[in-house]
Specification:
Blueprint (H helix, E strand, L loop, with lengths): L10 H14 L7 E5 L14 E4 L5 H11 L4 E7 H7 L1 H10 L4 E6 L34 H8 L3 E6 L3 H13 L4 E6 L3 H5 L7 H11 E3 H5 L3 H4 L3 E8 L5 H13 L3
Parallel strand pairs: 1-2, 1-3, 3-4, 4-6, 5-6, 7-8
Antiparallel strand pairs: 5-8
Helix pairs in contact: 1-6, 3-4, 4-5
Length: 259
């Protein structure tokens, strides 16, 4: 069907994984809200028949936090790109993790600012070329799973567009989790990242995901040299902690009682 993304973009696969996860959970669509910011991933709500909110750049989690506080009965899912979430919205990300507010965030990580023609994002690997790094990026990129876990997220996972069914399963677990859940979805941008870095076509980039993604169990058996250039997929971390909207409601009731 006609779509808004560039040919070969992996975001449609990631969006499909989100939709299948929601469908398997049999959630009432009127009780689901999907919030996006600005960027390629922010186009996802255009395909969805849920309560959707398209917000300003980097502020999807801020809007989602207000929405969840006002309507804690809703399942609130944030979809955001790596530039939107980890750069302009970076502070909102770490504080949403710290609060452990019951939101599910799916980061569509295509390692570039695709919508604005390919500037470096915090996920652009060192040495790769972008419009803002024509001679190669000299910065190191984040490990978003390490970052969100350290900031207090109580569910952290990473999947990839190539492993779409496994990715959908991780998103399903994240939605079911009580507290702040984060899923990084490695996606491909053949137009502004792959072409500029001479990585090849969309199928080539998917093949790269297939051969470079390893599970934590497999990674444990590999040497640092064998792990060079590879990335770990699967559930990183899950724990329990007080959830923000419930703590807020308890405080409100206590104050109403004059205690």
């Amino acid at each position: 069907m006609p779509h808004l993304w560039c040919p070969g973009c992996g975001h449609g696969i990631v969006l499909g994984a989100v939709v299948r996860a929601i469908d398997r959970l049999s959630l009432d669509k009127d009780k689901v809200a999907v919030v996006s910011g600005i960027g390629c991933a922010s186009r996802a709500p255009g395909y969805l028949d849920f309560n959707t909110l398209h917000t300003t750049h980097g502020r999807a989690l801020a809007f989602a936090t207000g929405l969840k506080l006002a309507r804690p009965d809703l399942r609130v899912i944030v979809v955001a790109g790596d530039g939107d979430l980890a750069a302009i919205g970076g502070n909102h990300l770490i504080h949403a993790c710290r609060r452990n507010i019951d939101l599910t965030t799916v980061c569509f990580n295509n390692e570039i600012y695709g919508m604005t023609s390919g500037q470096c994002s915090p996920m652009t690997p060192t040495g790769k070329v972008a419009t803002t790094a024509p001679f190669g990026n000299i910065e190191r990129n984040f490990d978003l799973c390490d970052l969100t876990r350290a900031a207090g997220a109580t569910f952290v996972a990473r999947g990839a567009a190539y492993y779409a069914r496994a990715l959908s399963g991780l998103i399903e677990q994240a939605i079911k989790h009580k507290g702040f859940s984060f899923v990084e979805a490695v996606s491909q941008c053949p137009t502004y990242y792959g072409r500029r870095n001479k990585i090849g076509t969309a199928p080539d980039m998917l093949e790269w995901q297939r051969t470079h993604a390893v599970t934590a169990e497999k990674a444990a058996a590999l040497s640092p040299e064998e792990m060079a250039g590879k990335f770990i997929i699967g559930k990183y971390f899950e724990t329990e902690a007080p959830e923000y909207t419930e703590e807020y409601a308890r405080l409100s009731e206590r104050l109403k009682g004059g205690r």
